[in-house]
TrEMBL record:
It comes from the Bacteria. It is an enzyme of class 5 (isomerase). Residues 245-326 form the PpiC domain. Its EC number is 5.2.1.8. InterPro entries: PPIase_dom_sf, PPIase_PpiC, PrsA_foldase. This is peptidylprolyl isomerase. It holds the Pfam family Rotamase_2. The keyword Isomerase applies. It catalyses: [protein]-peptidylproline (omega=180) = [protein]-peptidylproline (omega=0). Signal peptide: none annotated. GO terms for molecular function: isomerase activity. SUPFAM superfamilies: FKBP-like. Belongs to the PpiC/parvulin rotamase family.
Length: 393
């Protein structure tokens, strides 16, 4: 798996990652439990379903070409010749999902409905090296997320059959792999994938890994423990991250329609004086002053014109912008010019500073805790690594 991602990877680095994942995953399961760890993974899928799907997908990716060669030896040159779809009546589906069109507050099945679903066979199959079996509606139901359950409750028969076929294909992949590598080897790979997923979930809970923007109760708890003194100290060290526009001195030209606005914009692009055109064309009350707005401060909740000014680069004339209004309302157009910008800093006591500081400090604390935990786990663990000859080293 490692070499599929990076052909130059070394065996030692792979073993280090496997060992770290094994230890970290076991610690994560003890501390948080599987439900918390799986909450940020494939949304809506049960943890075991996610791991099983990843196992089949990994094996198919690594050995798919060899599996295809074996499939071509079958009478129909594929799995289709081994599949036998079964008819399921509308009345039978009613016993599982209820009558069509009924108002539902959720899409979960109770134990009686699941038991009935387990009795409804969607597909029978015969794997090429033995292992005849069937896929029931219950098998399909248990492997769905919310979107899948919506399709099932909508009685989408094609969807049901496709999902049954997917499960047969996955069973073939596992059957082929067990015959090729042994049952223990496939079980070990599944455990590796479970370890990897739980270790990544542990990283996410600590604000690290592949999704640092995901919610984390651990980070929320650590952030709530950050003191005002810590926020002030962090702000002092990161003050340059909170530069903002404090005020701007600007002019504008308000035009009655888009055609006039485009005409004035073209004149400005050709070098015409902004104040002169404002006096000549603007319909705003400040037209006589050359459209001067004076100093506009960044405070409170700026109106839309102020927001346009704060977004405009100093010394550059903006394109014409339509004032906010309904799609068919007669709305004026604005052209603005920021003559000067004065920069400042957000106040240390502002909510935005407090939030940014507490989250950053929480991540630092979480990362330090995770680093210490990994070091402690490695220090306490007994690790035996098999040599090429098969003995421990």
């Amino acid at each position: 798996m490692a070499r599929a991602a990076d052909p130059a990877v070394q065996r030692g680095a792979t073993l280090d990652a496997l060992i770290a994942n094994r230890l970290l995953a076991e610690a994560a399961r003890k501390r948080f439990g599987e439900e918390v760890l799986s909450a940020g993974q494939r949304v809506g899928f049960a943890r075991d379903v996610s791991i099983d799907d990843q196992l089949a997908s990994t094996l198919r990716t690594l050995y798919g070409s060899e599996m295809e060669q074996d499939l071509r030896q079958l009478p129909g040159a594929g799995l289709d010749s081994l599949l036998h779809p079964q008819a399921v009546s509308d009345a039978a589906l009613d016993t599982v999902f209820g009558k069509p069109g009924a108002l539902r507050l959720d899409l979960d099945l109770d134990s009686a409905q699941l038991a009935q679903a387990d009795r409804l066979v969607l597909l029978r199959f015969a794997l090429p090296h033995g292992g005849d079996g069937s896929i029931t509606l219950g098998d399909v139901v248990r492997r769905q997320n919310v979107q899948g359950r919506v399709a099932l409750f909508a009685r989408e028969r094609d969807f049901m059959l496709r999902q049954a076929r997917v499960q047969v294909a996955a069973r073939y992949v596992l059957d082929w792999s067990r015959r090729r590598f042994g049952t223990d080897a496939v079980a070990d790979l599944r455990r590796v994938l479970a370890d990897q997923g739980d270790a990544q979930a542990m990283l996410r809970l600590h604000g690290m890994g592949d999704d640092q923007h995901a919610g984390s109760r651990l980070l929320d708890q650590l952030a709530s423990q950050v003191s005002p003194a810590q926020v002030r100290d962090w702000y002092r060290r990161h003050r340059d991250d909170f530069v903002r526009i404090e005020r701007v001195r600007a002019r504008h030209i308000r035009l009655p329609d888009e055609a006039t606005a485009q005409k004035v914009a073209a004149a400005l692009a050709a070098g015409a004086d902004f104040a002169t055109l404002a006096r000549r064309h603007s319909v705003a009350q400040d037209a006589a002053a050359g459209g001067a707005l004076g100093w506009v401060r960044h405070q409170g909740r700026p109106d839309w014109l102020a927001q346009l000014l704060f977004a405009q680069a100093e010394g550059q004339v903006s394109s014409p912008v339509r004032s906010p209004a309904g799609p068919y309302a007669q709305a004026p157009w604005e052209i603005v010019l920021v003559e000067q910008r004065v920069l400042g800093y957000q106040e240390a006591g502002s909510e935005s500073v407090r939030y940014a500081a507490s989250r950053a400090l929480a991540r630092e604390t979480a990362a330090a805790q995770l680093t210490a935990l990994r070091a402690e786990l490695l220090r306490k663990a007994r690790i035996d690594i098999a040599t090429a000859a098969g003995g421990p080293a």
